[in-house]
Write a structure and sequence with these properties.
The structure is a homodimer. Chain A has eight helices and 13 strands. By secondary structure, chain A is α+β, with helices and mostly antiparallel strands. Chain A has a seven-stranded mixed beta sheet, with helices on both faces. In chain A, strands 3-6-4-5 form a four-stranded mixed beta sheet. In chain A, α2 packs parallel to α3 and α6 crosses α7. The longest helix of chain A is centred in the first third of the chain and has 22 residues. β3 of chain A pairs antiparallel with β2 of chain B, so a sheet runs across the interface.
């Protein structure tokens, strides 16, 4: 940069605004610099809205991870939610509580991290709110997107006999910092939804067992049988297993923040998907929806065990 | 309530969702309970988006103010930003970092506070993100709205010779906790914009001098002369003045969080507004836009002094 670093809030906003001005797309009529952003949605499309807040010490460690990774993750997890509706992301607004010491440097790093994903996915950074305080960094991103002509895909919609698929290997996202670099499966979701009607869709943020349980609950209290041998296990999960002694399969079932998609489709569509996965999606067929409620796991030995959703509950440790 | 208090995140979300289910309006196709909210904007309307983050110790004191007041303020300041575009608010999403101890009780109080404003202004609470941590309460609300057929009113648009008006007495909002109970001037802004084209509009969150300076800067570097005798001074500002010795007028010019509107209109429209204010708006004509840049104040004695915007800068205290 040739300009001196901004040292006040207005100067920081000016700095971000200058960087964004030439980059906003046709959705954004008024970006940063007014009381609201003014957006122009596509006529007739449903609007998708998602918001996620990330806190230092809970979702990242600013000191170790640095602000760029935090910005990347904060936008990435929201884009993953848009992917989980098979939608197209369009614009984001960003609110931050910056630690007072080094606030401007942190804000600029956050922005650098967000820009990478914003550019890749054509998302306008259209507005926000900057604050500084004596507390730890908190960032809250809200992303707006739109459904395709096929409509948004919800969690509700799974039917007994449907197949359950995932888009990548699971587990151990904390091990090598992979949770900081979510790969939003936007293009995968769009390709899949274009190729066949998806009955239900979710992104795996809390863990496969928990997130699949959300689908089953929203679909009217259905159940599922997962095939242990078919669940793709990430190498990070195997590495964690070697260290903590917990089976790698448990990591794959219960760890969060993989940000792969879990989709439910008709059995014959699943067969076609597996024979010829719609690019760029990779697909693993992991189980089947049942009319009997509850989650079950068929082990490699052929036994069927009941399992419970064990993904992350933010409140579990409340006294 | 007959139901036992929710004690986990899912139970809390269920509790909020049950309370919201019957209340969402025609904008919300899918509210709480999926990866995104699905909204149906009015065809042809511009979409307005605003986000604001409030932190314990900075924008409120949870211990003294209680969670209901915090929820009320968090939604209120965002509605004020929609008013500042002369828009109609439609839906909100809410992300929170709850202090772990008492998280559920705090979340329920926040929700109670938000509901009051949401019901008054027809805003759907369409989704959110709940987190708990060992840090102080942080709440981030994002509101979506739409512009009327007359279009959104921006900060840019003031012209030399235009009149500057405000919708209520200013200053001292911290004195008796008035900053916790913003009265979003939604209906006032709509009535005013219907009655005459507003050239520029902003809500007074940082202080009149600062917020007016935003309008002047965005309008191409214009200036303004304010009439000291015409600036409506809130009784809270007079009370603060008695205690801190700072002139009440300074409080009116520089205190933040009044959440009244500052509007700029053609001189003849201002004359008609003052003769017959469009209900429910109250109006005070406080000055005039000038081609000469800078803010000036004509004292009651008739002298003209240069003043500088002295509203709140979150970063001013950075070392």
């Amino acid at each position: 940069m040739n300009e001196p670093d901004p040292t006040t809030e207005l100067a920081l906003i000016h700095w971000i605004r200058q960087r964004e001005r030439s980059r906003t797309g046709p959705w954004t009529r008024q970006g940063i610099g007014d009381d609201c952003a003014i957006l122009v949605p596509s006529p007739g499309s449903d609007l998708l809205v998602t918001t996620d807040m990330l806190m230092d010490g809970r979702h990242f460690r600013l000191e170790e991870d640095g602000p760029e990774a935090v910005g990347y993750k904060a936008l990435g997890v929201n884009l993953s939610d848009i992917a989980a509706m098979a939608g197209v992301p369009r614009a984001a607004v960003v609110a931050v509580a910056l630690p007072r010491l080094g606030a401007v440097r942190v804000a600029q790093g956050l922005h650098d991290g967000m820009r990478k994903l914003a550019e890749r996915f054509g998302v306008d950074l259209a507005g926000g709110d900057t604050n500084a305080w004596d507390g730890p960094l908190v960032i809250c991103v809200t992303v707006l997107g739109e459904a395709t002509a096929r409509g948004a895909v919800r969690r509700a919609g799974a039917r007994p006999g449907d197949a359950i698929l995932v888009t990548g290997p699971l587990g151990g996202s904390l091990f090598a910092g992979r949770h900081l670099h979510p790969e939003p499966r936007i293009n995968e979701a769009l390709a899949l939804h274009q190729a066949a009607p998806l009955h239900a869709l979710i992104d795996i943020s809390d863990g496969l067992s928990s997130d699949l349980a959300h689908i089953l609950a929203e679909s009217g209290g259905l159940g599922a049988v997962l095939e242990a041998a078919a669940i793709p296990i990430h190498t990070d999960a195997r590495e964690m297993s070697r260290r903590d002694g917990i089976p790698a399969l448990d990591h794959a079932l219960n760890d969060g923040e993989d940000f792969e998609l879990c989709l439910v489709v008709a059995d014959d569509d699943a067969a076609r998907f597996m024979a010829r996965p719609p690019a760029p999606a990779l697909l693993y067929r992991v189980g089947e929806v049942t009319i009997v409620p509850g989650l079950q796991l068929r082990t490699e030995g052929g036994q069927v065990e009941t399992i419970s959703p064990r993904g992350f509950d933010h409140f579990r440790t409340i006294p």
